[in-house]
Amino acid sequence: MTPPGWLAVCVTLLPYLYLTLVLVYGGLFYLARKKVFLGLLVALIVSAGVFWRNVLLPKSIQPASGIEAIRVMVWNVQRLGEFSQRTQVSQIDCVAQMITQVRPDLLALLEITSHQLFALQKRLNIPQNHCLWTDYYGTGQQKFGGLATCVANAAAEWNIYRKRQLHLPPNWKYLFIEVQPPENISASPLNFLALHVAPPLVSKNEVWQIVKKLLRGKVEGFSLLRETLRTYEQQVELQGMQAVEALLHIRNFRDPTVIAGDFNSTRDAALHGELRQTLIDTWSVAGMGFGATRYWGDVLPLRIDYIYTTKDFAVQQTQTPSASCSDHLPVVSSVFLYSTTP
């Protein structure tokens, strides 16, 4: 069941709503010294600890001797600054430098054209057949934005067995590759998927327009607010459908699987609760803090980019390296297979 638009917004902003209430009740208790405010304050802090205990107390598991971790990286590269004032060459250099620094084995890139991917592969010396690209609608138009999966560590002798585009409703695409890692990583093949869930279709300019109209007491502000919430509700429903469709594909896989992408939703959204029933959110296990990957309106930090794995994996470390090449930060996880440990 899809939540109403106002509730979906509250879920997206849940940590900040909690923080606001903590400040309010903390202030009221300080001023009034009433036990009811202290009780509410304690209840909020305890429930916040229950909801977000994993990100406050991350767990890191070290692989056994002789077992190498798999480094997975996902990054929405924002069309390499195509619509900004930055040059394509400088953006490619910036992204290439970060990828070189991280040295991922498996790489998912989002919001990238075929031509941009080719230039980046050339810059990083990644063979052409080590990447799979599609535009978001599967038209084959190389100038359109899309997503890519790559085996970025060519020196480690990873082999790609299969490559395939997969379908999401209503006419969206995502990518699947089956790879064979070196023997010191895994004796069995791995599945790697790149996914970009539908965006919310609510811009910061629309939100500011609503706020301005409401502050001026204009009636059309309420109409615009209802329309915007309705649009957001429809997109939340579509996001849930796309996540469930991807999860159905993963459940049919026999081999260990990693899925990485921009889910355009925060961890408290219903779709992530569904995913966490079957998969491991690598940041929730081994990341520190809330792991913001994008600042909405250049102000509000949100975690909307994720790496999930099947429960065949253990997570050694997850980070969001600082980078100025995009409006998103990359997510990098080091994982390894339980089955490879002695």
UniProtKB/TrEMBL annotation:
Signal peptide coordinates: none
Transmembrane spans: 6-29, 36-55
Keyword RNA-binding: no
One Pfam family matching this protein: Exo_endo_phos
Domain Endonuclease/exonuclease/phosphatase: 73-328
Superkingdom of origin: Bacteria
Organism for this UniProt entry: candidate division KSB3 bacterium
A single MF term (Gene Ontology): catalytic activity
UniProtKB keywords: Membrane, Transmembrane, Transmembrane helix
Protein name, as recorded: Endonuclease/exonuclease/phosphatase domain-containing protein
